[in-house]
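ESCALATION

Customer reports they have been waiting on this structure for their group meeting. Please prioritize. Original submission:
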Amino acid sequence: MIVAACTLFLISGMLTLLSSYSHAHLLNMTELHLDASNQTEATLRVKIDLGQSLMNPDVYWSAATADAGAQAQLIAPAVDQLIRSIKIAVDSEPISARLQSWQLDAISIDAIRNPITPQMAELVFALDPNISPEGTELEVRIDGDLEIPWPALLRVDSSAAPLPVSRLLTSSERSSRPIALNGNPSASDSTTLAGLALAFQNWVPGLSWVAVGFQHIIPRGLDHIVFVLGLYFLSTRLSTLLYQVSCFTVAHSLALALATLGIVAVPASVVEPLIAASIIFVAVDNLHSSVLVRWRLLVVTLFGLLHGLGFAAALSELILPSENFYSALLFFNLGVEAGQLTVLLLAFAAVGWLRNWSQYTNRVSRPATVTIAGVGTYWLIKRVTFI
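Update from on-call: job pushed to the front of the queue and completed.
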């Protein structure tokens, strides 16, 4: 029993440690697009996660859900700070900026608070005086008192240059260095890091939903983690685990899609107690069997449908983008699968090396299974009692 308790503690510790590294800063990196290709007016377009930087999440949510007049007042301090701290100069002559338009994206207050689901604001500034095509060098610098989600990807379009120039600004390297506006290739080469960040930028929406799906397993989906561990502890044979996980994956992916599309709807008050019951069933069956039989695969498939409905309930708290609905759903499901696979890999790392031990069943597998059954029983009582 002590070995089993240590095993579960080790796995949970690994999961907690892993979840602390799940907040990738590139997901909400700041974008600066300086467009000087227009002969009449140059603009600076700033795409920034205001709720994670210059504004409190609650204030940003209030602004995103307010009318235009209230929005202008709420974002004014952040706008003033950006205007003061982002310095633009052409041939050493300063360029001033004024806010021209803005758009605040926010699907929920929880999404704003979570850096894995960046809610980006887009602020457009008109530059004065206009950047003349006769200018030779431009430099953008961010003052040291401005802290934004780093890195910041700067893109410069000029009417005199055939290709845009990209530079990557960081908290330690806040200047773009002089950028040629005359199209001189040797002076306007993009840095390698900027090129990589620009390529990554196109993947950010999909990766964000992968991260959200992963997070719904680690660390938020504790009941799903325990169920997967119940599958793991049935047998020491890898093929037994693969058959079960395959059935479970196909089933919960199908249920997630059907529920998210509105084809199937089951209330959480029904789904959540049944998920707890599925954990108990798998654990009790582990205690009476060490081989995989066909009816267990059928039961695991049915339980997969239940867990898919649970994932759908979690996903319903967020609003999938209408323009990328199916790709967001796919990436969310991939994140769930990645979380599930991580749980299994951590289980292998924790106790896999003991699977050939003669006392593995009595000292590791069986005590862990009893613990899993106890956890499932607690959840079942709690979820039935508080319905």
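Sent to customer with the following note: Residues 325-351 form the longest helix (27 residues).
Escalation resolved.
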